[in-house]
Amino acid sequence: MLWRMLRQSWGRNLRRKGLAIITVFLAASLISALLAVSIDIGDKMSRELKSYGANILIEPAGQAALPALFSESSNPLSGQDFLDEAELPNIKDIFWRNNIVGFAPMLGGEVTVNDNAVRILGTFFSQPVDIPDEEGYETGQKTVSPFWQVTGDWPQEGENSPPQTLVGHALARQTGWKAGDTLLLNNADTTVPVTVSGILSSGGEEDNQLVMPLAIAQTLLGLPGKVQAIRVSALTVPENELSRRARENLDALNAEEYDLWYCTAYVSSIAHQLEEAISGAEVRPVWQVAASEGVVIDKIQLLMAVVTIAALAASAMGIASLMTSTIMERAKEIGLMKALGARQWQIMLLFYLEAASSGLAGGALGCVAGWGLAKAIGVMLFDAPLEFAWIVVPCVLVVAMLIALIGTWFPARRIARLYPVEVLYGR
Asked: Where does a domain end: 232, 258, 285?
């Protein structure tokens, strides 16, 4: 009997039921799109925020920061510790290897050009690195420092490539050097002619330096196979209380907390693993970059949560208004049902089933529309479609039915409490 009445009710008031489905559809499409975006936004935003630069710095244990090294005037490399270039592949051999976006080794020092002291920096621009299980892997400053702007060409790298260098734009303005010029770089008994391939604007100390392939700097400084520091760009998750406790005192964590921290992509966890992978290294997160990533991602996800709740509330109120008018139009039908012996819960169950079926239909259509909307948002914001997690589908279907049920509860409860004589005679 109940199912026959349900089928008959769907045959009437198709316009109002269509409006209810559309209301749920609009809410479900927005909610499914926002859920899909919020699930994938962390990874996408983290990749976008890599434009801030590397968030991890690897140096020899006990070595001063690179700028302090450059400030030394007399034999700045004497007594310094170095890292082995041969250990660079170890960076991609940690637990969170897939979160390593890229890295760039650095070796700096001082040479003379026309009897004038000039600082140089050797690094990778886009250099192949032999990584197990990752054939054709290339990394360097193009990956780690995408904000670097080069007027002209990037230097060629490789054994058979002609020696080339970039000139920082501040140094170029001071010396008058330009693309195409040939410079004779001297250090002790070593002289290397290099051609200026372009002018570099980085916004950092590189603007006052000659920036060249690492192999050339190693030759000039007499340090084959050595580097002073390594910039690493890694995808991380925002810090929480556990990460902050680990950063302050790792030994204070118990075994369970340590395992959770180690197996979570915190910047401190990745830094710890890198320190284990490279001998004699001290790894320091660049907290200005790491913290900004977490703050931005947290605020975006909070904004999405607020919009989702607003969509839920608006759709529930819309359904409630629509169902109120629909139920009031069926007041005499309800009164007749009660006069024939129908109980209150049976009447309410009929309306709840109608609402749930409308919510299910609108939710299913909303999931399809939300999938397309999430893809469009990804293309517009990140030039790549977002991944649609299928866990969103059951969540949205449940939410859509809840929206319809909540919107139906108030008017159904009100009308079901009336006496048959009040409904039938309009009192």
From this structure: 285
Reply yes or no on whether the pLDDT at 301 is more than 80.
Answer: no
Assess whether 197 and 332 both reside in one domain. Answer: no
Question: Do 259 and 297 belong to one domain?
Answer: no
Domain total in the chain: 2
pTM of the predicted protein model: 0.62
Range of the domain at 13: 2-46+293-424
Q: Are residues 280 and 307 in the same domain?
A: no
**Which amino acid is present at 422?**
E
On the question of pLDDT at 319 being above 80, the answer is no
Say whether both 311 and 408 belong to one domain.
Answer: yes
For residues 217 and 70, membership in a common domain is answered with yes
- Examine the domain organization and report whether 143 and 217 are in the same domain: yes
Instruction: Return the higher-pLDDT residue of 1 and 33.
Output: 33
- Residue 71, pLDDT > 70, answer no
Confidence band of 150 (pLDDT split at 50, 70, 90): very high
Q: Report the pLDDT value the prediction gives residue 348, as an integer from 0 to 100.
A: 75
Looking at 285, 302, 336, the residue that finishes a domain is 285
